Amino acid sequence: MSQAPIPVTVLTGFLGAGKTTLLRHMLQAEHGLKLAVIENEFSETPIDGQLLGSEPVELLTLANGCVCCSIHVELEKALYLLLDKLDSGELAFERLVIECTGLADPAPVAQTFFAGDELCERYVLDGIITLVDAANAERHLQESIAQAQVGFADRILLSKTDLVEAPAVEALSQRLQRINRRAPIHIVEHGRIELAELLDIRGFNLNADIAPAPALRPLLPATSKDRIATLVLHSERPLDMQRLSAFMEDLLERHGNALLRYKGVLEVAGEPRRLVFQGVLRLYGFDWDAEWAEDEARRSVLVFIGDNLPEAEIRAGFAAVQA
Ligand SMILES: Nc1nc2c(ncn2[C@@H]2O[C@H](COP(=O)(O)OP(=O)(O)OP(=O)(O)O)[C@@H](O)[C@H]2O)c(=O)[nH]1
């Protein structure tokens, strides 16, 4: 059976950031999309449904055709169950949104879709959306997990901006942008946002879409340094393919677990096409993309969002890759 895979959006954000509020909006708005939402109560050790007084998986089809799925089992089981119900015609949905618990790192949820089995054929990870509570960000961002949630994001949504003054929102946006320079930041008011901003992001596709968000606006120097930060490398000179491979291999070997997200569009010496790559932790892919146009300024850009990356060492390693 060959069907288009179901796009999956992972929604994350620290405790009380407004995930449920946003999901409620997604599930109730008349957007004409058939969404299935997994509200997770899952944990590594499955909890006895009896104890919780509820079924391990509860499914509810809503008036607008969306499906709400509360689970108390491992995510994979719920994903297979949704497929079964879809295939048997018992349920209809064309997209899936998964809510992560506030204290969870979104990486294991994202990695579920890279596992290489049936799940990867039937589902495709579209993007990671991170909600940040503008009123409590200062406190939340002291936690490395809250910083990691921002680092993994393809889109950052600022909630509760109604509770803080504009300059504080601007300062927070700057800080978030230093942590993650790739993810555009949107304001979400009590869960209200155009779904088009959140869907079809194609954050994990191999493409040349890399423009770091701050290309749009300069960042002020940081007053304090966050643990998770973005490192952008540029080269105006073509890169040597062999040295590039060695550089990437070494980087992954030594810092793979600290590389939350990374993406690159590269000019390789003697090659008319651009090389694109992207990855999450140690999992990455690369491919040859379209040729550079005749009149186009050729330039390599790599963006790494990492946890305490040794910047000077990485910059020196990259400088040696130029042909
Ligand atoms: N003022 C204000 N309150 C908001 C906004 N968004 C959400 N809230 C409130 O913040 C509280 C927490 O929101 P939830 O949606 O439950 O947050 P959550 O991320 O699902 O919380 P956990 O599941 O506990 O991690 C609720 O009382 C919401 O009504 C907003 O934009 N402005």
UniProtKB/TrEMBL annotation:
Q: Where is the CobW C-terminal domain?
A: 228-322
Q: Which SUPFAM superfamilies does the record associate with it?
A: Hypothetical protein YjiA, C-terminal domain, P-loop containing nucleoside triphosphate hydrolases
Gene3D superfamilies (alphabetical): CobW-like, C-terminal domain, P-loop containing nucleotide triphosphate hydrolases
Please provide an example of a Pfam family that matches this protein in its UniProt record. Answer: cobW
Which GO MF terms are attached to this record? Answer: hydrolase activity; nucleotide binding
Which InterPro entries did the record assign? CobW-likC_sf (IPR036627), CobW-like_C (IPR011629), CobW/HypB/UreG_nucleotide-bd (IPR003495), P-loop_NTPase (IPR027417), Zinc-reg_GTPase_activator (IPR051316)
Keywords, alphabetical: Chaperone, Hydrolase, Nucleotide-binding
**Among its keywords, does the record have Nucleotide-binding?**
yes
Q: A GO CC term? A: cytoplasm
Q: Which reaction does it catalyse?
A: GTP + H2O = GDP + phosphate + H(+)
Q: What does this protein do?
A: Zinc chaperone that directly transfers zinc cofactor to target proteins, thereby activating them. Zinc is transferred from the CXCC motif in the GTPase domain to the zinc binding site in target proteins in a process requiring GTP hydrolysis.
What family, per the record? Belongs to the SIMIBI class G3E GTPase family. ZNG1 subfamily.
Name of the molecule in the record: GTPase
Query: What organism does the UniProt record list as the source?
Result: Stutzerimonas degradans
**Taxonomic lineage of the native organism:** Bacteria, Pseudomonadati, Pseudomonadota, Gammaproteobacteria, Pseudomonadales
